[in-house]
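> Could you send the Replicative DNA helicase prediction when you get a chance?

Sure thing. Input:
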Amino acid sequence: MKKELNEIISQEQGLILRLLDKAGWNYKKIGKEYMGACPVCNNGHNTPNTVFNLDTNSFKCFACQSSGGLKDLSNHLQIDFKEFLKEEGIISEEKNNGKKDKQYQGFEKVKNANKSYTTKEINLEKISSLVIEQDVKEYLKSRFINPDRVANYIRSLKPIQDKSFKYLEDYYKEGYKLLIPSFDLNGNLKAVKIRNIKGKEPKVKNLSGFKQYPLGIDEIFYTDEEGNIQKHDIAVILEGEIDYLTAKSLFYDHKADLFIAIPSVNYKFQKEEKEALPERIFILLDNDQAGKQASEQLARDLKKAGKQVYIASYPEGIKDFNELVEKLGEEKAKEEFSEIIYKALLNPFTLTKTLKDTGINLLKRLEERIKKAEAEGKDKPEPIVLKTGLEFLDNLLDGGLRRGLYAIAGQPAIGKTSFTLALSKHLAEAGHKVLFFSLEMTDEDLLIQLLSWITGIHKRKILDEEISKIELNELQEALEHYIFRNIFIDIESKTIDDIENKVIDTLNDVGDKRLIVFIDYLQQIRPSKELLRSDYRLQMKDIAYKLKEIANKYELPVFVISSTQREGYNAKPDGKKKTEPNYIAMFKESGDIEYSLYAGYFLDYPREDLPAGYIKANYELPIKVVKVKSRFGHTKDENHNQIFKVSVLNFKNGRLEDIKDLKNKDNENRIVEEFDEYDLLY
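Output:
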């Protein structure tokens, strides 16, 4: 019994969220995950450091590493697990005269040519009636279901005066009156759901205990006008009993149409059921994330069983079959249903995804964005790319920032941290939220550099605390700059799990605003325990891959700084006489991370790339940025040199400016200053 219970719980997708709702425990959807506070280590707080998995009804905390199933979670939340399962209709166990009486732990098969409403444990005809009560009829009409058209598929619970059925009397008083029985291929009663017509939660209970069974299976085979047994050629699979009754009501006069409704998105057809199903199957589950995922899984299962499968979908804004009729009315709903089936017919499901499948999903997503823009009164949707506020940098980034992993590489002491911090400052000034992981420097070091840039007070004076009262006032005023509210600093995260946990925390802090993540730097991130003794390159490759997963999972641009070896800096590219380094070879020194990157950039000294007339006056260091790797491919000139090169300068106030934009400025009267390498952060 315990094994059977665990199996049912694992099939009830989303049950864990209903448990959280019952406990009043806060959670929210972040990216593709449902997150909330950990009931073990974070009780009473709102830090969402725990993933609640809808598919397995389990949880895991990133902070204390606590994990477990639904029963473990109910214990932590101080919820009676057994009572919760009874409320959800997963189990049924009532007290009768002080004794516990188990209800219907599955119906015994009765092989009979006609439908059987009687089992060893219950007589459905004794507790229900084919005469539908008026309030049940009104309920069905409110759900756009004609009760007369579906009379063969429902029954009304009787007001029973029998001590052995006391629980049914209570059900009746609470409003549980609509009975919906399921039958197998032979017409044997398999499961019974009882639905509340007053809107009371839970809306439906399972009178058949653990058993769940599809609706409509008993109609796969039918007797034609000549008395011959026939089998339907096509079936449409829906989700839930209300959608099933809605479809039967809408197409009540279409005897050739076969509708089957699975009891939940996680239901799996048994072998004999799959064999009996028609050869062509259209899957039309609810238009939500759970329904879409279940459609894919069900299609794979049925395709492997040798069926011709088509995944159909409702129009945007329509959740299910019942809502289709509600919003469009019966006649238009029939037309739309025909269109839904026709579109699905054009794209048969295949176990191996084709580019056509990818294209359909892409165009559908674009269509949804256009409709949303039109609803907001716009001609077209806003691009999803994030602008940096620097035109030359946006050009280098192929128009701006997108979700994915970016890398900024360079040899030690080139100024990677300073460049990245300046970039963070620009993004914060543009209104973006920035999360800066510093695995090497302290948060105070980074703050002092930013304050120095804004005030012009030398950072060594701040570090040595040689500050006058006037300068203190300037620092206090600078600290009120809005960029300090847009930049989040983390110096405690050391592992990938730490980083992901902090990303989740920050996403909750910033709300709907887009977040840009910087990590300084790759080689300081601790490898996983499994790879602790493995090759260094393998460790870096694994870390980069997991950073890419974080970027894609939470739809973020993630920058990671990576250091290369000094020894490789003077390496010459093959076939070149110039002393320019082989940037791609040097980039690989980071540990083959380029395979996980959306784009990669290398910082170098400009050498001969400075424009004519340029004078180094008042600039700490000019730096060339070379695009080494891009999702859109390399851009090279006829000599195979990278042509995307941007000179970056003037770190004294944290400004990133293109030398090309400065070369025409009047530099003639500037005093050439000797470069002080200690003015940079390394």
